[in-house]
Amino acid sequence: MLEGIFVEGLIYGLLALGVFITFRVLDFPDLTVDGSFPLGAAVMAKSLLTGIPLPIAFLLAFISGGLAGLTTALIHNKLKVPSLLASILTMIMLYSINMRIMKAPFISLNRVPTLLTKFVELNKNFIDNRSISYLILFLIIIIITILLLNQFFHTDMGLTLGALGDNEQMIINQGMNPEHLKIIGLSLSNGLVAIAGGFIAQYQKFADINMGIGVVIIGLASVMIGELILKSNKILILLLRVVIGATIYRGILFLSRPLLVYPTDHKLFTGILIIVILTVTKFRKKGAENG
C-alpha cells in the first residue's frame, strides 16, 4: 500500500512538473492540463492497442500534449485572448478530440503489454513484488526527468523562460519575442502532462475520457505543498520539491479516505487543502514582514 502511494506520487509528480512550468516559471494560468492529461492517456492507449512500439507511443503522447500547449499559446498570442480563457477553449476542444481518438469513453489495457508489465517481467528474477518494481521504474523516470529539466533551465533558453515569468517587459526590451517563449514553455509543459497521462493509463490499465477533470488542481496542490515545506531559489530544489509535494499530496489523500463519503469528495478535499495552504502562506509572509 505504501509503495502504491509513492508510485502514484511519482507519476503525478510528472504532471505537477508540467503545472510548475506554466504557473510558476511562465506565470501563465493554464487549464489546458485538464485536456492534455487525458489526451496523453488516449494516445498512449490507442497506440498500444494498435501495436505501435512503446518508444514511438511515448513520443506521440508527448507531441500530442505539445500540440495542445501550442494551440493555447497561439490562441493567446495571435488572437490576444487572455491566458486563462485561451486555455479553457483548448481544454474544451480537447474533450472532443480525445473522444475521436479513443472512439469510446473507456479503453481497457488489461491484456496489453505496457512499459510497466515489461519492466516487471524483466526484473522478475530479482524483484518479486510488482509494486516495488513500479516504484524503481518511476524513480528512474523522475530522476532522469528532473536532471533533464534542470539542465534545460540552466541553458540560455531556460533562463530566458524564467525571466519571462518574472518580467515580460524586460524580455521585450532585450529584443526577444515573448510569444515564441510562451509557445516553447506551454508545449513543454503540456508534453510532460501528456506523458503523465500515458503513464497513468498504463498504471491503472485503462484510459477514461473524464480522467482529466480537475488534474490541474492536483498539480497546483502538489506545487504548493512543495513550496510550503522547502524554501529555495535553486532550480534543482524547486523541481525536486514539486515531486515531493505530489507524493505528500497522495499520502494526505490516502489518509483522508475515511473522511470522504463519496469517491468525488477528494476534489472538495483538494480545494479545501489549497485554501488552507494559501492561508498558511499568507500568514507566513505577514510574519516574515513583521519580523
Automatic annotation (TrEMBL):
Q: Mainly localized where?
A: membrane
State the annotated membrane topology for this chain. Multi-pass membrane protein
Q: Which GO terms describe its cellular component?
A: plasma membrane
GO terms assigned for molecular function: transmembrane transporter activity
Any idea where this protein resides?
Cell membrane
Which keywords does this Swiss-Prot/TrEMBL entry list?
Answer: Cell membrane, Membrane, Transmembrane, Transmembrane helix
Annotated membrane-spanning segments are 5-26, 52-75, 82-101, 131-149, 183-203, 209-230, 237-256, 268-284
**PANTHER family assigned:** ABC TRANSPORTER PERMEASE PROTEIN YPHD-RELATED-RELATED, BRANCHED-CHAIN AMINO ACID TRANSPORT SYSTEM, PERMEASE PROTEIN
Query: What name goes with this protein?
Result: ABC transporter permease
Per the UniProt record, the source organism is: Thiospirochaeta perfilievii
